[in-house]
Amino acid sequence: MGCAFLYTAVALILLTWEGNLICRGIFHLSGLKDSIAHLPTAAHNAGRWIGVFERLILATGIIVHSWEILAAVIALKTVARFKDMDERNFAEYFLVGSLFSILWTMLATSAWIAYDHNAGIDLRKHTEQWLGI
């Protein structure tokens, strides 16, 4: 059981903080980092927290087989930034960040689930039983 906490903690760190680091690296390498240079620092920090919560919510959706959560997250993000989408650079920044978050969450959560299924407590099976899926 203690091992389950360890690999779950590793998965959560990969999803959240490591995801932010990789995303920032992608923005830097692609030149999209300059697209948000005009925004105040508070907006940058808010974006990082939004990314963390986004990936956690998406991971929850993957674990419980609810792909509607993916659609809801994208819809909420789009509505929140709809006015900013007229600016091409920001739209590209937004799309790259969102698509990275989705891809990263799918990869990290799939690895987490696979490891948990083969060597752990099979959290997904217990979640499915608990939810009656």
TrEMBL record:
<keyword id="KW-0812">Transmembrane</keyword>
<feature type="transmembrane region" description="Helical">
    <location>
        <begin position="56"/>
        <end position="80"/>
    </location>
</feature>
<feature type="transmembrane region" description="Helical">
    <location>
        <begin position="92"/>
        <end position="115"/>
    </location>
</feature>
<keyword id="KW-0472">Membrane</keyword>
<protein>
    <submittedName>
        <fullName>Uncharacterized protein</fullName>
    </submittedName>
</protein>
<keyword id="KW-1133">Transmembrane helix</keyword>
